[in-house]
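Course assignment 3, question 2. Fill in each field.
Student: A.L.
Task: Predict the tertiary structure for the chain below.
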Amino acid sequence: MTVSDTGQTPTTTGMVRISHPALSLWQSSVRQVVAGRVAHGDITDRKVADHHLVLDADDYVSRRAATGEVSPKPLASVRLDDNLFEIALAHAHDVVNQLAGFANSIGRFNNLDPLFLECVFEFVKYYWIAHRPPPYRDWMALKAGLGFGVVQAPISDIAKLAVIGDWGTGLDDAECLLQRLLEAEKPDILIHLGDVYYSGTGAEFHQNFATALDAAVKASGQPRPRIYAVPGNHDYYAGGSAFYDTIDQLNDKSTRQSASYFCLRTEGGAYQFIGIDTGIGDREPGLAFDSRYRAPVLQDSEGEWLRDKIDTFAGRTFLFSHHQAFSAHSALNGPASRQTQHLNQPLIDTLGRPRLEAVVAWFWGHEHNLALFADRQYGVRRGRLVGCSAFETGVGEDPYKINFGEVEVQPPRLSTSGSWVNHGCAVIDLGETSIRYSQIGAWTDDRPTPLPSLTAVAAERFEP
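Answer field:
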């Protein structure tokens, strides 16, 4: 067993995000076990982030991701000087496929740090859960009818809806962004575009989403808005149950979303806001690990549900998903996928151009940046990337680099704070028929005094 391949305890700042369920589950498992030992279960405590097992986990998954290969070793070939993840993955894979003999085999490692053994069993638990069917709520399987997923209580015709994406880090700057957003805009509705890191465990949804949200609301002194969410890929890496448990508790009965997709409408019927679940289609290792990887699409029944919502509604639609319809910076499909790399055409085709005309704007996350794409590309009237609300993006990552020139991006850009690109959010103001985009400084170390405030990035009007 090694601390790192160099023999030294690694150090890191910020979050390490890898689109691979096993690697992300290892990050979650180690943090949860360490938090239980050193921080009373609080996975956001700095002592957890600085613990040598956590640092080793982040360092190792970063290096493993660079190789593009993750596969379990046969148990017989696992050595005591292997990285902790290698040992854990070998046992997790074996127990998923063959439960018999697991207790005896792990006994070979009974001389290791007991805390590590807890990490192994925590990882095995989630690895097993992640390989079971997720608790997706299919309106068709439930025989609930196409009205399923429509929120019972409408919202005001002049409501403000705040949009944040990839916000579930539990870090100070995430909480600060939401606090300042609530203070400045006083939104009636908050929509999260998905991803609670690292793999959407119960502890992570509790600490990194629910507790952080409550703290931001309290600090803002503003009324709590109604809250809706669509799941990202990370929300399904631990099986998805925590996402569903969370949405069941966010609002009261008449305002609650009943599934991982939702439809929210205004009182006068002028607008509807539809969230769709692309995360369930991205529970396997990501593009970096599979050259044949294809961007996720909707479940067939959900596609039918979505089309029905637009076909039977006389007003205008705003659409929300975790995954992108297209990107100028990030590949959405693998080079061997036989798909256009920068475009999720099957997802766009779920609606088709006539229905897309009814969509005022389509907001998505997944990519940790803010981008206003040129209007009416690929049939999308307004494609808007808002995946930048908490996850740290280093200046050196150059998130505005154009890797796919076919996709045009409008000029607004996030500024930087030190080594980090600022965080961002959006507000849809129905009373003013406008969309405003704001930013706030990002940090990873000491909490700045005073806390930064939101500043404007861009604004646009839409047709009433």
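Instructor remarks: The chain has two domains: 21-130, 160-461. Residues 1-8 have pLDDT under 50 and may be disordered.
Grade: pending
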